[in-house]
Specification:
mainly alpha
């Protein structure tokens, strides 16, 4: 009982998921390149993000742009900014983007798991590990706050070191457990490569962006480039068609 569903209605979706795995890897490589550029030259990184954003806008369908979804975070940032200042408002926007990107990435992993015929890998329990690295990154950012992002101040409530250590220990344990289960699937020839690869990229990017205490601006650029490159893959990273 491994939760795998073979053949039938999932066959065409499984092929599509396999094609999409190349696009996910390409988007991750673009994100890593953008983060590296941000460490060297902020204006050049901004230019890269602008190009990726313009491409995503040109390729977006009319129904994909939901500007109303920005209202809640914007109002929250305005309210916090009025009470605690600009740095706290930027902190609210940072937390919103972190959780938004994590939720989107986990949703993509769910979609790929369903397409591969593995509904058992889409439950909240099975995907709990995917939240641990973003939360660990958030704890590191809060511990090392305040920060500067593109010339703007960012501040979060300070966390003690033991909170960061605890978050890191939970993340390490959860990811290690997930990795062992995927290794067992691989040994049995039952590994669903597309969702597993997606979640591996997810953990690596969130850990690199915010868990390694690198430049905060580079981490923000990395995740933004990842999201934009995934929305509109470049020709060399686009999923292959049959």
């Amino acid at each position: 009982m491994n939760g795998k569903i073979s053949g039938g209605i999932f066959s065409s979706d499984s092929a599509a998921a396999a094609r999409n795995s190349d696009g996910a890897l390409g988007a991750a490589l673009i994100a890593a390149a953008a983060g590296a550029v941000a460490l060297i030259s902020a204006p050049l990184a901004l230019l890269m993000l602008s190009a990726l954003g313009a491409r995503a806008l040109m390729r977006a369908q009319p129904g994909q742009l939901n500007l109303a979804a920005l209202a809640g975070p914007a109002l929250a940032a305005l309210a916090v900014g009025a009470l605690l200042g600009l740095a706290a408002a930027i902190g609210v926007l940072f937390i919103w983007r972190l959780f938004s990107d994590a939720h989107w990435s986990i949703g993509e992993a769910k979609r790929l798991a369903l397409a591969a015929g593995r509904p058992s890998e889409t439950t909240a329990k099975e995907l709990a590990h995917a939240w641990t690295t973003p939360l660990f990154g958030l704890s590191v950012v809060a511990y090392t706050a305040p920060h500067m992002i593109a010339g703007l101040p960012l501040d979060l409530p300070h966390l003690p070191l033991w909170c960061v250590i605890a978050a890191g220990a939970v993340a390490a344990g959860a990811v290690f457990d997930w990795g062992l289960r995927r290794a067992a699937d691989w040994r049995l020839g039952e590994l669903a490569k597309a969702p597993a690869g997606r979640l591996l990229i997810h953990h690596l990017l969130f850990l690199t962006a915010f868990g390694m205490t690198l430049d905060m601006s580079a981490g923000v650029v990395m995740l933004a480039a990842w999201r934009l490159a995934s929305a509109a893959p470049l020709p060399f990273s686009a999923p292959r068609t049959a």
